Amino acid sequence: MSNISNNERESIHGLWSSRLTFILAVTGSAIGLGNIWKFPYVAGANGGGAFVLVYLICILVIGFPIMVSEILLGRKGRRNPITSMQLLGKEEAGSQSWKIVGFIGLFAGFLILSYYSVIAGWTLHYFTLSVTGGFGELDTNQVNLLFSELTSSILTQAIFHTFFMVITVIIIARGIKNGLEKAVKIMMPALLFIMVILLIYSITQGDFAKGVDFLLKPDFSKITAESILAAMGQAFFTLSLGMGCIVMYGAYLPKNESIVKTSLTIIFCDTLIALLAGLVIFPIVFDNNLAPTDGPGLIFLTLPLAFSDITGGMLFGSLFFILLGFAAITSAISLLEPSVAWMIETQNVQRSTSAIIIGSVIWLLGFLTILSFNDLSEFTFWKGTLFDNFDYLASNILLPISGLLFTIFASWFMTRSSSRSELSDVSPIVYAIWKFLARVVAPIGVIIIFLNAINIF
User: Fold this and answer.
1) Could you tell me if residue 12 is inside a domain?
2) The CATH number of the domain where 60 resides is what?
3) pLDDT tens digit string along 211-266?
4) CB neighbours of 280 closer than 8 A, spacing ≥ 6?
């Protein structure tokens, strides 16, 4: 099989029906809980518009070349990340050992989904609270109590974790056309529509001027080495790089679609949604004289307090948390798909069976995260609780390593003819720019992020 040319190798799972569908799918993968709460807060705390400028530079010189590399590898290999890297490793570098890179990425996505599903379950719980009027007339102590009751309840977390994983498994089990495509075609426009409604509400009812000032006003005095590292890290992680998702989705991209143009479109959409999220959240926060606290606090502690106090709080609170739910699901399906595709290809089982088996293992692993907030909260080692360790291992170690190696392989080990054939629609200058960024700039950036994450700096 390793001698089959790219023109003959086809995805056994099917292809995206259009470039738009692929853009929606990858943008959906990139837009998750982190985009909606983490990016606005990090930007506001690190110089607003100045940080956004640094972030855009980082996303173009680090995020863009890595994304192009991962899509390129996926389309060239047409298989799950492990098998694609095994095939390409033998064809391009004479070694099947490159499959380890695919395994690292796939395992990172597997691990991330186990705790991501639990956190996503929290958003579904808060959606039900908002719909049923659970945010009516709350004070700070009551909001804190609500969150404490959620994290201390194994049953409540288990119910919503289970519900979220069931939705994710059903979508994946239905395949590319009937599952992934239909999900992103419905959820991504719905996500954008809800975001626009909330933005209009934020403009008319919130302290929009102060929100814009906090998020976008450049304060270059706050740009430090630390904030530049934060921008580099955000640029890398916001695009779902290094976890096998982009490689897997790239395997379903038709040959005639432009990888470079598609990557730039995805980056634009991802950044736009992150900025819109900030313009939705902060005017509401400031209008209610609340502090823009850190990520989880902003979502689960500060905003319920705001929604309990504003006109139409039940409706707009419900819209906000279902928005988070949609964002979480589009990310979750991209995290599950690589593992399911691997099982289908290597174990010769049906897609539905594979989705149920892999989904069940991830679901069971999720209970370790649930327990780390209550019964096992005292069980700490290395970086803290089990949840803290899962998150640190995946985000700070596995993702940078796999993202770095995917990019190094695509730019250093693939022959020029192979990579050029996948990027045949761009000029020699654009190809040369990608290669320079992928060979030199992006690896240096990722190494700096990695060393900072493990506290070398």
Assistant:
1) no
2) 1.20.1740
3) 999 888 888 888 888 889 888 888 888 899 999 999 999 999 999 999 999 999 99
4) 195, 198, 199, 202, 320
Residue-number span of the structural domain to which 263 is assigned: 19-453
Q: What is the dihedral of CA 213, 219, 223, 228, to 10 degrees?
A: 40
The number of distinct structural domains making up the chain is: 1
Residue 380 counted as domain residue: yes
Task: Give the long-range contacts of residues 177-183, CB within 8 A, separation 24 or more.
Answer: 177/14, 177/17, 179/333, 180/25, 180/333, 180/337, 181/16, 181/17, 181/21, 181/25, 183/329, 183/330, 183/333
Query: What is the value of pTM for the model shown?
Result: 0.94
pLDDT tens for residues 84-137?
999 999 999 999 999 999 999 999 999 999 999 999 999 999 999 999 988 887
Find the angle CA(121)-CA(196)-CA(189) to the nearest 5 degrees: 65
Within a domain: residue 411?
yes
2 lies in some domain: no
> Residue 293 to residues 38, 40, 41, 298, 317: CA-CA distances in angstroms?
10, 11, 8, 5, 18
